[in-house]
Structure prediction request, 109 residues.
Amino acid sequence: MASLFRRTRFGRRPISSRRWWLGLAGLIALMALIIAYRFITRPERVRAFAETYLQSMTGGIVRIKAARFDLFEGLHLTGVTVATQPAPAFNPRANSYEDRVISRRRTST
Prediction:
């Protein structure tokens, strides 16, 4: 009869408070990493970063319709358009953005 009162809750051995706090700290750290990953890989942020990077590499005007980052598949860019910078004597009626397009790649997802 005395063994009935010695049983721990749910039939398990109790854990130390140090172990409990370490587990809680690990859970909080994991949640912080997940939130940071979702913030860093937002489609708007990835698209803006890709546009800035491609503009600095090509020296032209870059427009990206959609961009997303997948941890296992990498970077996906959709609707990438690269155009040359307008000349100093640029006449918008004679030379539109579409006339200055160097490369346009269409991909299907």
Remarks:
- Residues 89 and 95 are 10 Å apart (CA to CA).
- The chain has a mean pLDDT of 81.
- The first strand starts at residue 61 and ends at 70.
- Strands lie at 61-70, 74-83, 101-105.
